[in-house]
Amino acid sequence: MKKLIKAEEIVKVFDQGGESQTVLSHASLDIGEGEFVAVMGPSGSGKSTLLFVLSGMDPADSGTITFDGADLSNMSEDELADLRRTKIGFVFQQPTLLKNLNIIDNILLPSLRDNRKEAKWIKKRAEELMEQMGIGELADREINQVSGGQLQRAGICRALMSGPKIILADEPTGALNSKTAQDIMELFSGINREGTALLLVTHDPRVAARAERVLFMSDGRIVSELKFLARGREALEKNLIKVMEKMNELGI
Amino acid sequence: MFRRIIRNDILKSRTVSFITLVFIAAAAALVSLAALLTVHLTGAIDGLMIQAKTPHFLQMNTGQPNISRLESFAKKNESVTEFQVLEFLNVEGSEIVIGANSLAGSVQDNGFSTQSSSFDYLLSLDGTVIHPSDGELYVPIAYGRDGTAQIGDKAVIHGKQFTVKGFLRDSQMNSLLASSKRFLISEHDYNELKNFGSMEYLVEFRLKNLDDLGAFETAYINEGLEANGPTVTYPLFKMMNAVSDGLMIAVILLVSALVVLIAFLCIRFTLLEKMEEDAREIGVMKAIGLRTLDIKKLYLGKYTALGGAGCIIGGGISLGLSKIALKNIRLTIGDGGNKTLAISLSIIGILLIYLLILVYVSHVLRRFHKISAAQAIRFGGIEETGKRTNRLTLSNNMFLNTNVFLGIKEVFQRKRLYATMLSVVVVSAFIILVPLNLHHTISSPEFGTYMGIGRSDLIIRMQNTSNDDQMVKETVQMLQSDKDVSQYAVLTSKRFTARTITGREEPIKIELGNHSIFPVLYVTGKEPQKQGEIALSVLNAKELKKQVGDIVVLTDHGMETQLVVCGIYSDITNGGKTAKASFVDDSKEALWNTICVKLSQDVSVDKKVGEYGKSLGFAKISGINGYITQTFGPTIRSVGKAAAVGMVAALFMTLLITLLMIKMLLAKERYSIAVMKSVGYTSKDISAQYLSRFLLILTTGVILGTVLANTLGETLAGALIASFGAASFQFVIDPISAYLVTPLLLGGTVLLAAFFGSSGVKNIKISQHIKE
Asked: Exposed end of chain B (fewer CB within 10 Å): N or C?
């Protein structure tokens, strides 16, 4: 499988009130094209920072990250923005939509940056995606007129609009009730089946059990990895048990 | 703790705190200065007029007055306490040379007097009555101020040598608005010069009670006494003395209003920015049960400190500045004014500024009530209400670039926020354009027609003398034989008496002759063409309450002549009260004769002025442009300076406010910027959105400002010009400076500020503002 993301020895240090805190400490990982990887770990283990660094939103202090063969550290701010807009879809834990745009405009926002001439086609695609996500009728709603789950679906639509190579999702179901969370995970699985790679941070073992691999983080490092030989509905129960065993073993 | 919070806050936003402090100090200094100057000016004028014993009623007369008739009138009239006739020896400017400076180019009527024995004294700069010795010359202070004369200079008057011994204050003619200036010499020297100039007489009265002035004036006119020249009364002298420094005070007050406005905008933007930044903390304070008033106090504290410091500094500055600003008043008018009153008023002014600031800060802080604890903690910002997004949607935008569209959409969504910025641009455009257009208008050749002067090339003016007719005849003969002259018109000014609606008789100066050769600007109607017609200047028409078609009745020893008003015209010459008619009159002496001349093409006006100056020694010759620049030179220069200062001030204000506004917006929109960046918008994209917002505001502001300058500004400038007697004022606009340079300058300033201001977008880190 061709490597999409390759990260080696990443270090990220934050300055917190004059004291340095190492959030990522020589973390290394790689993600193949179309692969579904989950990241688990206790709070403060560096999971969210890992996603921010891999997407180019935060620069790593040391180590190398290549995306599709290109070194992120050699990219300008504009090139990193282009990368996020065209090849990476990012889904945040809290829906991060702009308050002054309605739902469909929020979804169209990244795509219309470059392709305004194809506005009609882009709008059609957004409407199709919204239909698929079950929020087709909410296009013209203000963001304070819809529920958290619906906002999260809108966020996923926005991430999918450019047909990205990978979706980076930071606890996308963390703030949702279990029914909505399950629906969202079904959507993610579907997206992955269509060939989009998925790197998903989660606390929920049931979510992690859907992945091909689960990476376990602690103190800014990848401390363990779990690979599932079988996937699908039948294997889900077995995988869930393996994840929970690993969590117990690592004390997560 | 309270003090530490305030100190930290001020130190954290050092630049903006300093700018706010500077503006508060400037506003306090200017208001205090205006109060100090007002008290000083009124006190000094009163002091000067009391010391000089200014006449309550002055009648200037060009012919020898009948002294015994005047004396018996003064004795008979119970209001009169003192009466005198002073001589004023008018000497041609070219005959007066002080040091290396000749007064040949002076538009003032310069003349010589001796010291009065009973009242209307000419005073030295220390307020004493001057008694010059032979060979000593005392020069009006106006010539000291403009550097024409210095103490110790040698002066030559018609070949006679003098030494400038000092400067004098003249309670009548000190002001530049007074068209005559009196020099003081000894009796002996005066008698030697007496035959070289034309004599004017000042018939002066002092009354028991100034309230009787109106009745006295009527009695004087009814008696048919000397009235061959302008009449000036005590209140008018006072007004003339006050007007130039009064205008300075008015300008100071206007500038201070502008400075207060800028200080308010600084405070507003800084406070809004701070509240956005602190929204989460404010939410927490509310959540733990602190009262809104307590939180408000934290923020009010900073401005109580800044305002207090600014006002104290401003007060100090005003005391320092007042010494410089008072220098002119002290020199021209003298010392005076109640010091305690001046200081009290200045302190009241400063306190008023302080209070205004605190009230305004408190007003801005009302937004605290709108902050919901839960919202502020969850979103880290203040929720705005009433935003509609549905009208302008990205999904329906088919034409505009996405960044431009987002910028424009933002402005339409938050109209109230951007209205402040819009008003700054409108005010800036207005402040730049009105003085600029006024300057261009009064320096344009068309403006002569507002002055009551037709568009001729040169003017020959002859003051009344005994052989008037002969001189006019000689001049006309010369003009007729001069091939360089294409047209000329002889206009003779005479004094008549008109009956007002109330039956009162008022003196009226009428210029007789053919007025169709060089017509002036008529507000309504046209020039007099028939014998029975009269045209009135705007001020005269207003005073006589006449309109076109009405009848003006002239009375002369019981005889009545009826004239129909055929036109009303703008005039700012001779105090603005003039009239024009074409009937022939041989019964009265001319006050003066004016001959307007139009030269053939390609004839040099300057050369002709020099030529006529030599051959017509008895007349004053001026080229029309020279005449306008001389009469209006200082005004044109002042308006020019005001235009330049207005432009610099407006551009500075725009730059500062745009920068502050962007800073505030960046603080407010950190989250949105982070979201934009996270989905792949570059810092340049976001800067482009900011530039679009400001470009939209700029375009709208410049258009509105230009329209406002050309309507309201024109009306305001017209009202100013109208107070001098001109009407139906219209701007003569220079399209390049008004419609190209001004928008470009304003645009450049706003876009520059927006460009540099929005560079802060780069520093907004996604991970710091999207809280997970």
From this structure: N
* CB atoms A99 and B387 under 8 Å: yes
Q: Six-digit token pair at B710? A: 């050309």
Query: Cβ of B68 under 8 Å from any chain A Cβ?
Result: no
Q: Which residues contact A149 (CB under 8 A, 6 or more apart)?
A: A176, A177, A180, A183, A184
- Output the six-digit token pair for B323: 């010494």
Question: A–B: how many Cβ contacts below 8 A?
Answer: 104
Residue spans per domain, chain B: 1-50+235-384, 63-228, 394-446+632-772, 466-617
Q: Does B391 touch chain A (CB under 8 A)?
A: no
Query: What's the CA gap between B6 and B740, in Å, rounded?
Result: 46
Sign of the alpha-carbon torsion through A171, A173, A177, A179: negative
Query: Over the stretch B3-54, which tens digit does the pLDDT of each residue have?
Result: 776 777 777 777 778 888 888 998 899 899 889 888 998 899 899 999 999 9
B681/A113 CB distance under 8 A: yes
Write the CA distances from B581 to B508, B542, B578, B595, integer angstroms: 12, 18, 10, 15
What CA–CA distances, in Å, run from B113 to A241, B83, B155, B270, B610? 120, 17, 16, 63, 30
Number of domains in chain A: 1
The verdict on residue A179 lying in a domain is no
Q: For the residues B644-668, what does the mean pLDDT come to?
A: 87
**CA of B541: how far to CAs of B133, B145, B548, B581, in Å?**
49, 38, 9, 14
What are the chain A neighbours of B387 within 8 Å (beta carbons)?
99-100
A114 in a structural domain: yes
* Cross-chain Cβ contact B772/A99 below 8 Å: no
The whole-number average pLDDT for the span A231-241 is 83
Task: Give B54: exposed, middle or buried? Use CB within 10 Å, 0-12, 13-18, 19+.
Answer: buried
Tell me the residue range of the domain where A144 lies.
97-163
Name the phi and psi angles at B306, rounded to 5. Answer: -60, -45
Question: B518 pLDDT band (50/70/90 cuts)?
Answer: confident
End-to-end Cα separation, chain A, in angstroms: 30
What is the average pLDDT value for chain B, to the nearest integer?
Answer: 84
Instruction: Taking residues B756-764, report their average pLDDT.
Output: 87
| Residues B673, B699: Cα–Cα separation, whole Å | 25
Q: What angle separates helix B670-678 from helix B624-668, to the nearest 10 degrees?
A: 70
Q: Cβ–Cβ of A85/B762 closer than 8 Å?
A: no
Examine residue A136 and state whether it is found in any structural domain, yes or no: yes
pLDDT at B244 over 70: no
Chain A neighbours among B 133-162 (CB < 8 Å)? none
CB contact under 8 A, A100 and B409: yes
Which pLDDT score is estimated for B641?
80
A194-198, B354-358, B576-580: least confidently modelled range: B576-580
Mean pLDDT in residue range B398-411: 89
Token couple for A17: 């009130």
The answer to whether the Cβ–Cβ distance between A119 and B765 falls below 8 Å is: no
Whether ipTM tops 0.90, in short, is: no
Tell me whether B387 touches chain A (CB under 8 Å).
yes
Give the pLDDT mean for B47-66. 88
CA angle B573, B245, B349 (to 5 degrees): 140
What pLDDT shows up at residue B385? 52
Residues 6+ apart with CB under 8 A from A102: A139, A140, A141, A142, A143, B389, B390, B393
CA dist., res. B541 & res. B579, Å (int) = 9
Query: Residue A97 gets which letter from DSSP?
Result: -
Q: Searching chain A, which residue's CA lies closest to the CA of residue B388?
A: A100
Kindly report which listed range (B37-41, B87-91, B392-396) carries the lowest average pLDDT score: B392-396
Q: In this structure, are residues A34 and A10 in contact, taking their beta carbons and an 8 Å threshold?
A: no
Please give the average per-residue pLDDT across A3-31, as a whole number.
91
